[in-house]
Write a structure and sequence with these properties.
Blueprint: H1 2-16, E1 29-31, E2 38-40, H2 79-83, H3 86-93, H4 101-119, H5 121-138, H6 150-162, H7 165-178, H8 190-197, H9 201-210, H10 213-223, H11 229-236, H12 240-258
Antiparallel strand pairs: 1-2
């Protein structure tokens, strides 16, 4: 998947910003020797756009750092950029593609964690690259009246994850059969920790695997990503009523496993 992503991205950059001195060298994500963290080198190193294409700092998988703003090669975001809402950044990026890089800084790590919990770290690297490539190419369709682009970006990522539905279900079913989690810490939220303490990871994994994809998407966006019903509706392009009904059914199935535990 890496080569098509990189080649399309270099084509886009060549079209949108040929005057910016884009260096079209492709680099791959590399795992640190100890295996506990990863470093994604920029797939396209660009003087004004390198942050759109890959994670620049080593981060520990699943190590949430809410409120942190990733920086790249020691370069911090300006105070002005931090204060601009997502919709305004996307609007500005129509004339200045560099502005779009700030969205990567804000959300790439979160989306990588979400994808890694569902598919594993290796697949998540590609999901992040493809998500921001697709978002960059579709930015002209974004409704800039929405200040937060997070639901939009998660919607793109979730659509891409759907292409790996069989892989996700295989991983969950493997856990349900063996009790050995192929995605370390993939269920590390509060509910899952309670389930783990009771030795019931296998049952929960089996319940998740058996859910229809749309129901699982809604449940995980709410439970893992703490999205509101309205945000999930935007992300998945469904009504709030559909979000409520899918979540109710998914929770009911999970509660059959967890008993009275809240999910």
């Amino acid at each position: 998947m890496t080569e098509p992503v990189a080649s399309v991205l270099t084509e886009d950059l060549a079209q949108h910003a040929p005057e910016r001195g884009i260096d079209q060298h492709v680099h791959l994500c590399q795992r640190n020797p100890e295996g506990s963290a990863y470093t994604c080198r920029p797939r396209v190193a660009a003087s004004h756009f390198r942050r759109v294409t890959a994670l620049g700092n080593p981060v520990t998988p699943f190590g949430r750092q809410h409120g942190d703003i990733p920086t790249h090669e020691g370069e911090a975001l300006s105070a002005e950029t931090v204060e601009i809402d997502d919709g305004e950044l996307i609007r500005r990026s129509a004339h200045d593609p560099e502005q779009f890089a700030a969205l990567f800084d804000r959300y790439a790590q979160q989306i990588h964690l979400y994808a890694a919990r569902r598919l594993g770290t290796q697949a998540a690297d590609d999901i992040v690259a493809e998500t921001f490539l697709a978002a960059f190419r579709r930015r002209g369709t974004y409704d800039t009246s929405f200040a937060l682009a997070r639901p939009w970006l998660y919607g793109i990522a979730t659509t891409l994850i759907a292409r790996h539905r069989r892989q996700e279900e295989r991983l969950l079913r493997a856990l349900s059969r063996t009790g050995v989690d192929p995605l370390p810490e993939a269920l590390d939220d509060t509910v899952a920790r309670r389930v783990a303490a009771q030795g019931r990871e296998r049952e929960l994994a089996g319940a998740l695997a058996s859910l229809p994809r749309g129901h699982r998407d809604v449940l995980l966006l709410v439970a893992w990503e703490d999205m509101s019903y309205e945000e999930v509706a935007r992300a998945l392009d469904i009504s709030v009523g559909t979000v409520r009904s899918r979540l109710h059914r998914a929770r009911k199935k999970a509660r059959n496993v967890l008993g009275d535990e809240e999910l």
